[in-house]
Amino acid sequence: MKRSPLARILFWVAVTLIAAVTLFPFYWTVRTALTLPRGVYAHPTAFLPPELTLGNFERVLGLVDSATSVRLGGSGQSINFFIFLRNSIIVSTLITVGQTFFSAAAAYAFARLRFPLRRQVFGLYISALMVPGIVVLIPNFVLVKTIGWLNTYQGIAAPAFLMSPFAVFFLRQFFLGLNRELEEAARVEGAGRVRIFFQIAIPLSMTALTTLAVITFIYSWNDYLWPLLVGRNEAVRMLTVALGVFRQQGAQNVPDWAGLMAGTTLAIVPTLVLFLALGRRVINSIGFTGFR
Amino acid sequence: MTTAAGRSEKLGRASVRLHESGVALLFILPSLAGFVVFFVVPAVRGLYISFTDWNLLTPPRPVGIANYAALLRDRDFWNALKVTVFYVLWNIPLQTVLAVAVALVMNAAARSSLLKGVILLPWLMPNVVVALLWLWLLDPTIGLINVAVKALGGPLLPFLSSPGMALSTIAGINIWRYLGYTALLVFSGLQAIPTEVYEAARIDGSNDHQTFWRVTLPLLRPVLAFVVVTSVLGSFQIFDTVAVTTKGGPINATKVFNYMIYQQAFERFQMGYATAVSMVLFLILVGVGLLQMKLLRAGEVET
Fold this sequence. Notes:
The complex is a heterodimer.
Chain A: H1 5-33, H2 37-42, H3 55-60, H4 66-71, H5 81-112, H6 118-127, H7 133-146, H8 153-161, H9 165-177, H10 181-188, H11 193-204, H12 206-222, H13 225-230, H14 239-248, H15 257-291
Helix pairs in contact in A: 1-15, 5-8, 5-9, 5-12, 6-9, 9-12, 10-11, 12-15, 14-15
Chain B: H1 2-49, E1 52-53, E2 61-62, H2 66-73, H3 75-108, H4 113-124, H5 127-137, H6 144-151, H7 166-191, H8 195-203, H9 208-235, H10 240-245, H11 257-266, H12 271-297
Antiparallel strand pairs in B: 1-2
Helix pairs in contact in B: 2-12, 3-7, 3-9, 4-7, 5-7, 7-9, 8-9, 9-12, 11-12
């Protein structure tokens, strides 16, 4: 379509504005993370870091001793984002692997196998999508506490490990759209359902499974309230929870912005890497998940 | 003979069925276990807890509807209702209008993959991270925005520290996070509109303005309905941003439902009361969801 020059200019102004508003807060975070606290205070508007440094990262990753930490502008308190980074990776990976696999198995049964109460059970799963998380949060906390899983990885991962209604729904839709012919041919050859699932259905669904896995990983990585309740201990504390705790600290109630932004950057990077590698699928899945 | 053969065939089919059901059970069992243990039982148990007085230390004591009765007299409850509704009103209309605008821009781009990726970034980040980015930018003393406003001779803007501004500021932060995601949903709706429709409108002499209001928007209606309903239900449940930025303050100005429930349960250990509030929130959400669907379906254009 031909457009007038004015419309073209307006279009580019809009695109630039959208991109700038979206990206600038990220840039400002990274800029602050690369500036020592004294620079952050002395030059609050400098567009580039007044003195480029990795000191904040060394400090929040616990790579320097207490004296050096104070020299770098910290409180000298030991902070170890390595542990939190590790915890977030462990919990999110656990949830992603478990949830994707078990949801795929269930979704396959709902899409392809006949069994009593199939529609009713699936309907129940779907109805759980409408229940606000806070309703089951308190009883789930009580359950995890009762079985002694507070402050353990399995306690944080458990509620999302075996399924999520969304994952089952998403994958069932995908399996329903999959051509049956290959599976039927395999059945004629005498292959059992389990073999067909592992050797035909799963390989044919790698795109959908990867998309779901990426979304699940990001969701688990981002979760805050549940890990805040059941994983407060440093040994299992996830990044989001650690950032919340870190924000409350800081000398004389003044937040340690440079350190905080370094920690924030650490939380951003893994998602960014994942998104750069597999983002197109996530983007393409959004219309899909929205409508079917 | 025929009957015997028929019976054995029937029996054979029945055994295939039975076998298939057995395999199916194997497939759904793990998910079913997760569903029962972490969704069904807690929902029922939550309902039970809401009729008790329980501090986690001593056994729950049944109190009938006392929690629900107390809630109706609780100023905090009514405050939470008011704050949450205002939050939704700050959040949703602006977010939806901006999302449609951004979707139209994406639709005008020949290739919009890069723009799509960029605009989706905030949605991929944890709420906690998004809250911290803006907490820093909006800091009253050395945050960039206030320093810049001051340099231009403007007043100090207490974004998150004044009762008057905090709630709308949080709404703004969340609009920033969800705008790209919402715009992508609207965009996929725009893409689903066949180009012939636009051509027909042009041939009929409709200008861009008319086409948007009379053709595009009505055809977007189902998508917009979906977007509005899901974002309203989501924004009723805001917690993370409040927990990181204001903790419900200043003076309860941002104490939304989920934050109030969190405090009742995990700071005051009133499990019964907290679950009662969560049940009422659930009912409100069911009501709001049904009402919205009714409103958005009413006057739907038949196509």
